[in-house]
Structures are given as structure tokens and as C-alpha cells.
Write a structure and sequence with these properties.
binds zinc ion; 22 strands; Jelly Rolls; alpha/beta; disordered N terminus; 2 domains; six-stranded parallel beta sheet; 404 residues; TIM Barrel; signal; 10 helices; single chain; Polysacch_Deacetylase
Length: 404
């Protein structure tokens, strides 16, 4: 019996291998998508951006600051203009009453900013529901996120990156198109969304004809060029609500593969605060999926991935893949930090038990107990140069916290 049994087991394991989704690849859509979001309700969005959108039949999502419209603050659109946006088929999201830093408010103020803005939009604009939220400045913490989850079905941040079918809908990533962002850069983002079948959300603020004087202004002719590019490439344009309807509607991360920090893009609310020379979109050296991290570990520079807080007691280890590039042997330190103090640290070669190898991917698993980080709140994850000198690039991919 042992022989057929062995054959059967091999068959079963082959079957599992062929049926399992590729490890640590984000789930693509059927095609790439682009969403234009216009934040705050500036009057120039109505007077300058809207005609360009309408001329191309591209609906957009407007994240409105409701008291600005209700009280007629200078520079903001009027109620009649907001109503016109709705009648023309645009999508409306709530962007609070007054655009505060939500993490600085009392519970009463926070509740008002979330609930009263939504109620005003529904009544003033005659909308049956306003389920989607845009976080002012992208600033949130645990209590803020808890309340957003109570009152809204989704939330859009300003953490850069793309979204996938399995992205958590309360951590929607969006790329800010400020004055300094060249048209060619945004075209590159559009190309990437098409190639990997991801969902690119763009954020605009004010518009101006001629040269912008503020960082939040964008030249209308450049906006028109971008919309032309989107149409030339034939990429699907969707509103925030339409894009969300095509996701899995995931409200919590799927922890069967662990708490993903990076797979093709930052995941699960991690924001890129890195100051080293790096790319999160490296496509030449990739472990799994479509992209990896390229990191130049020079002169104490580092990658920094920030989160509003994860309870380390729920995890047993941190696991990732490292590739030493052409030379290997880099001195790089991993640091887990809670924003005030270090929770644990180790060098990558110490964790590997050998120098980082050139030309191959190696898996690194670091038990949190081995670095004394079994409790505490992880807010900042660093990969940092530990040499103080100039070192060749290395690559990282599939960074994950493994649950208990
Ligand atoms: Zn805003």
C-alpha cells in the first residue's frame, strides 16, 4: 500500500500547487483603471477641471468639505455648483465638515466631522447615501479609523500606491498630483496600472490657468494633457464608487497569508516614509508578483514603512525575501519601532547567519522573540543602512508579519 499512497500524495500536492494562487501577489482586476478624485470642493475644480472632464465624458469623484460650501467660504464652490456636479453624474464623497486633522479632535468633534458632513451631503445634494470617505491630510489613528469604519463603507487615504481587487477598502491608496508632479510621471503611473491591472486613484486640489503659485495648484492645460493620455491609452475610467464595486469589498486584511506589509505595493495601511534612494516599483528583480523594492543602503539612509499601529502580540515573526543585487554582503539593519522607542532590531546578515548573497532571493524569517519584540505597537518598520558608507543596491519583496 505504501507505493500507491505515495503516488497519491504526490498527486495531491501537485494539485494544491497548481490551484493555489501565486504566493504574495496582489489580486489584479480584469483591466487597469483610473479614478480622478478632486479634494476639498475648490471653486476652480468646477470652473476649470469640470469642463475638461465633461468634454471627455469622464465622471470624477469630488470629496467635499461641507461647511465650506454651506457657509460659502471664499475659494470654494457654491451649493448650486455642487448640485450641478451631482446632476451631471459625478460621484460625491465626504471630506468632513471643516477639514481638520482628525487625530487631534475630541470624540464629540470627531463624531460631528464624520456624521454631520455625511448628513449634510445627503440632504443638501439629495443623495440617497454617501458611503465613501476621504481622510483629510491622510491623517488617522486607531480611534479615527474605528469611527470611520462605523460611519462609512470605504475610506481613501493619500498614501501613494495602487489598489488591487483584494485591497482593504478602508486603506485605499491614492497618488497626489501636486504642482511639482510632471505630466510624464503621471503617465508612467497610468502605464503601470494598465500593465498590472491595478486601480490608480489620482488626487487633485486647485486648478489654475498659467503657472501655479501654490503646491496644491495644478495647471489646467496639464490636467487636460493627462485626460487626453488616459483616453489615448484606452484605460477604463471609473468613479471611486464604481471602482469600489469592482473590488472584493475586503474590510479586513486576509491573514491566511499573514499581515502583508509589501507585495507589489505597500499593503494594509502601510505608508511610505522612506528617505533613502529607493523604488517600490522595481520590475527587473522581482521575487513574486509584478514588483519588488529596490533599496540603496547608503550613509545611514533607510526605508521607513509607517502604520497607525499594529499589536505585535498577535504575530510570531516577520518574514521577507532579500536579494543582494550584483555584489551582496550589504550591512542593513531591520528596526521595529513604536514611534517613541525601539521595540527590536537585528542586522539582516545576523538573521540569515551569513552575508546577504548576490544574485539570488533568500527568505529571512525573524522570530519576534529573538529580537525582544513580542509586545508593543508597531508603527515604524525600518530597513536601514548599517555601514555609514556607500553600498550597492539590494532588493526586498513579500514583507509579511506572520500571525501567532
Ligand atoms: Zn483635503
Amino acid at each position: 500500500m505504501s507505493r500507491p499512497h505515495g503516488v497519491f500524495r504526490r498527486f495531491v500536492s501537485l494539485l494544491l500547487l497548481s490551484l493555489a494562487p501565486p504566493a504574495f501577489a496582489a489580486t489584479p482586476f480584469t483591466e487597469g483603471m483610473v479614478t480622478i478624485t478632486l479634494d476639498d470642493g475648490w471653486a476652480t475644480q468646477f470652473s476649470l477641471a469640470r469642463p475638461e472632464l465633461n468634454a471627455r465624458s469622464i465622471p470624477a469623484t469630488y470629496g467635499l468639505v461641507t461647511l465650506a460650501i454651506h457657509e460659502g467660504w471664499g475659494g470654494y464652490m457654491s451649493l448650486a455648483q455642487a448640485q450641478t456636479l451631482v446632476s451631471e453624474g459625478n460621484d460625491i464623497a465626504s471630506h468632513t465638515l471643516t477639514h481638520p486633522d482628525l487625530t487631534s479632535l475630541s470624540p464629540t468633534q470627531l463624531a460631528a466631522e464624520l456624521q454631520d458632513s455625511r448628513a449634510w451631503l445627503e440632504s443638501a445634494l439629495g443623495l440617497p447615501a454617501v458611503p465613501n470617505f476621504v481622510v483629510p491630510y491622510g491623517l488617522q489613528n486607531g480611534p479615527v479609523l474605528d469611527l470611520i469604519r462605523q460611519h462609512y463603507a470605504s475610506s481613501r487615504t493619500v498614501s501613494a500606491g495602487r489598489n488591487f481587487r483584494d485591497t482593504v477598502v478602508y486603506e485605499l491608496r491614492a497618488n497626489d498630483v501636486a504642482r511639482t508632479v510632471p505630466v510624464s510621471t503621471v503617465q508612467g503611473w497610468v502605464d503601470q496600472a494598465i500593465a498590472e491591472k491595478s486601480w490608480l486613484i489620482l488626487v487633485f486640489h486647485e486648478f489654475v490657468n498659467g503657472t501655479p503659485t501654490r503646491d496644491t495648484q495644478y495647471e489646467t492645460s496639464h490636467f487636460a494633457d493627462l485626460l487626453d493620455y488616459v483616453q489615448t491609452r484606452g484605460v477604463r475610467t471609473v468613479t471611486l464608487a464604481e471602482g469600489l464595486a469592482l473590488t472584493e469589498g475586503r474590510t479586513e486584511p486576509d491573514l491566511t497569508a499573514g499581515m502583508l506589509i509589501y507585495t507589489d505595493a505597500l499593503q494594509n495601511g502601510f505608508a511610505n516614509w522612506s528617505w533613502a534612494d529607493h523604488s517600490l516599483d522595481e520590475t527587473g528583480v522581482v521575487h513574486a508578483g509584478s514588483a519588488a523594492i529596490r533599496f540603496e543602503p547608503d550613509t545611514w539612509n533607510g526605508l521607513l514603512f509607517h502604520h497607525h499601529g499594529l499589536d505585535l502580540a498577535q504575530y510570531q515573526s516577520i518574514r521577507f525575501w532579500v536579494h543582494g543585487g550584483t555584489t551582496g554582503g550589504q550591512a542593513v539593519r531591520l528596526v521595529l519601532h513604536d514611534g517613541t522607542q525601539m521595540l527590536g532590531t537585528t542586522r539582516l546578515d545576523t538573521a540569515l547567519g551569513a552575508p546577504i548573497a548576490p544574485g539570488v532571493w533568500q527568505q529571512v524569517t525573524i522570530p519576534l522573540s529573538s529580537i525582544g519584540a513580542t509586545t508593543g505597537t508597531l508603527r515604524d518598520l525600518y530597513f536601514q543602512d548599517d555601514s555609514g558608507t556607500d553600498q550597492p543596491a539590494l532588493y526586498l519583496d513579500d514583507v509579511v508579519l506572520v500571525p501567532q
